[in-house]
Design goal:
The complex is a heterodimer of chains A (312) and B (281).
Chain A lengths: L7 E2 H15 L3 E5 L9 H6 L4 E3 L4 H13 L3 E7 H5 L3 H10 L5 E5 L17 H6 L5 E3 L4 H13 L4 E4 L4 E2 L15 E4 L4 E5 L3 H14 L4 E5 L2 E3 L3 H11 L2 E8 L4 H12 L4 E6 L9 H7 L4 H10 L2
Parallel strand pairs in A: 2-3, 2-4, 4-5, 5-7, 6-7, 10-11, 10-13, 13-14
Antiparallel strand pairs in A: 1-8, 6-12, 9-11
Chain B lengths: L8 H19 L4 H6 L1 H11 L16 E4 L5 H11 L40 H15 L5 E6 L6 H12 L5 E7 L2 E2 L2 E2 H4 L5 H7 L3 E6 L3 H11 L7 E6 L22 H9 L9
Parallel strand pairs in B: 1-2, 2-3, 3-7, 6-7
Antiparallel strand pairs in B: 4-5
The chains are: A alpha/beta (312), B alpha/beta (281).
């Protein structure tokens, strides 16, 4: 079982990956809307000033500029908060990027309830739903620093619009520095027989904790990391559901349109099994520390354990 | 092969206006008003200034001038112009807005139509995209220019002014934007609907080099495009004073023809004013 090698923020994994891409791929450029430090673009910006474009607080224009750069052959990484990368610019992303098949990488930081104290204006809990329903969009929600770095590197080599979601708080960094990570391939973290737990983003660590608690209860849970929501690794999910006959999903996102509903839709078509979903119910968040908020809204290991027990 | 290049520009423009009416009438939908108002200057841009070889056109625009249509609803003009300039067969104009056509109601790249770099139709986005393309050319050391056509009604969109700030901030001197200032939008005259006001003062205040032109005077259009080529580090805005529906008397100057197809009788009346010059599609 994996162990925490020290807490780190996932946004810094993005910043590290972007900085590496600066030397690995000369086509990579970066754009930011007055949040360079917040989304950890500063090292790239300082090292490659000719390839960094400060766009000011004008996200709609930034998405269009990125589209124009992408269709000209560059690989733009566009950085802002997840709320402003989806809700604020939905139509720009839809028309100029997705419908135009522009190879833009949307780096969406400060996603989810763990944005914390800033409150609900900035805590998007609906961004995965918004991103994944867009045709041509690839959607990735990595779970820790190492995986976010690998996802960033992989995004540059991936052809097409891509939404990369990550967060602000320091959370356990537990995945191996070299992965495995491949876009569209679910990662079997821990095989088991009795129940499948499918977790994404910050909830993967919570799910790991849940697996340990369940083991003490004699329940052998299988844990799969769904870092890519689109394209979804359907085979991995169906195979696991066949094996265990019960599925619990876990995500830091609204129930509406998130991983749980995605998996429910898939399994209802192919192999229906009893399911439970750990997600946030309809509503907006509030101010608090990330940990307080995760616990308040039931986005934690205890909730995963409870949902597993409901299925038995 | 580009047979149209040998035709006089006035004949080309008349045929394009005729195509616009016939396409919209056949589709029983579409946007004739702005297509007709932009026809003179856009045809002259393509025929005499845009450094593009239709046979060599590619979507990344490398090594050539690029043109972006932000007001995607004037697709009848755009498609007719592209076809008449040799980007794709003229006969394809008959498929406009039909199921399975590359000539979507608003321009799309999904079906690989030559001449189209980006989808447009939802307003306000093309200027930003053109900024990105122009910056890419600068980064690559490509000396070619980027052109974009926007509308006066479209300039009610906030994103236009975000892009206006961005372009002057980054000194995007290889970008020329054109506003079709026809003064009309769907709901009525622009200055009654929302009032974009003094576009000369606005674009100047945003740090652009502003040129004004009678958008139906062919020699004035040529003079203005030539002036826009003078080097500088300011983006250029050409404000083209035009009449919506230009070329068809009962459509001229009225917002009612922004997005409406003529009836069969109206089509006949319009075509009587636009003689066939290059052969109908």
């Amino acid at each position: 079982m994996m162990t925490n090698t020290g807490n780190k923020d996932t946004r810094s994994g993005f910043g590290a990956g972007l900085y590496e891409l600066g030397s690995l791929n000369p086509a990579v450029v970066a754009l930011c809307a007055d949040l360079t430090g917040s989304v950890k673009m500063e090292k790239f910006a300082e090292t490659y000033p000719q390839r960094f474009f400060q766009c000011g607080i004008a996200e709609a224009n930034m998405m269009g500029v990125a589209a124009g750069m992408a269709l000209s052959g560059l690989i733009p990484f566009v950085g802002t908060f997840a709320e402003f990368a989806t809700g604020r610019v939905y139509d720009q992303v839809r028309q100029s990027i997705c419908y135009s098949q522009a190879n833009v990488k949307i780096a969406a930081s400060h996603a989810g309830i763990t944005l914390g104290e800033d409150g609900a204006t900035h805590q998007t809990m609906e961004d995965l739903a918004l991103a994944r329903v867009l045709p041509n969009m690839t959607v990735i929600n990595p779970c820790d620093y190492n995986q976010t770095r690998l996802a960033t590197l992989a995004a540059a080599s991936w052809d097409g619009p891509l939404y990369l979601r990550f967060g602000r708080p320091s959370v356990p960094n537990f995945t191996p520095v070299d992965g495995p990570f491949k876009i569209g391939e679910a990662w079997m973290i821990h095989p088991g027989e009795d129940v499948t737990i499918l977790a994404t983003g910050h909830m993967v660590w919570e799910a790991l904790e849940a697996v340990k608690i369940l083991a003490e209860k004699g329940i052998r849970a299988e844990l799969i990391n769904i870092h890519t929501l689109k394209p979804l690794d359907e085979k991995a999910i169906i195979d696991s559901a066949r094996k265990t006959g019960a599925v619990v999903t876990a995500e830091e996102h609204l129930l509406a349109g998130g991983l749980g509903e995605l998996v429910a839709g898939l399994l209802s078509r192919h192999f229906p099994v009893p399911m439970r979903m750990v997600a946030m119910n309809d509503g907006f968040g509030q101010s608090g520390t990330p940990r307080e908020l995760m616990d308040h809204y039931g986005l934690n290991a205890a909730s995963i354990v409870n949902k597993v027990c409901e299925l038995r | 092969m580009n047979p149209t290049i040998h035709h006089p520009v006035p004949d080309l423009i008349t045929q394009i206006r005729r195509d616009i009416i016939r396409m919209v009438a056949a589709a029983k939908s579409g946007h004739p008003g702005g297509s007709l108002s932009s026809a003179d200057f856009l045809t002259i841009l393509f025929a005499e200034f845009l450094k593009q070889d239709p046979a060599q056109w590619k979507r990344d625009g490398k090594g050539m001038d690029m043109f972006f249509l932000s007001i995607g609803h004037v697709s009848p003009l755009f498609y007719s112009l592209l076809a008449r300039m040799g980007y794709f067969p003229v006969q394809e104009l008959a498929t406009f807005r039909k199921l399975g056509s590359r000539l979507q109601g608003h321009p799309s790249i999904e079906y690989g139509l030559p001449g189209v770099h980006v989808a447009s139709g939802s307003l306000g986005q093309g200027l930003s995209v053109a900024c990105g393309a122009a910056l890419s050319k600068s980064l690559a050391g490509d000396p070619h220019k980027v052109y974009v056509l926007i509308g006066d009604g479209e300039s009610e969109e906030g994103q236009i002014w975000e892009a206006a700030m961005f372009a002057s901030h980054y000194k995007i001197g290889n970008l020329t934007a054109i506003t079709d200032w026809n003064g009309q939008q769907i709901d009525g005259p622009v200055n009654e609907v929302a009032g974009v006001g003094d576009l000369v003062a606005k674009w100047s205040a945003f740090g652009w080099r502003v040129l004004e032109c009678d958008g139906h005077d062919h020699n004035a259009i040529r003079t203005t495009f030539n002036r826009s080529l003078e080097p500088g580090d300011k983006p250029v805005m050409i404000l083209m004073h035009t009449q919506m529906g230009q070329g068809v008397d009962f459509m001229t100057g009225s917002h009612l023809w922004h997005g409406k197809a003529p009836s069969a009788e109206q089509e006949a009346l319009a075509l009587a004013q636009l003689p066939e010059t290059l052969g109908d599609f």
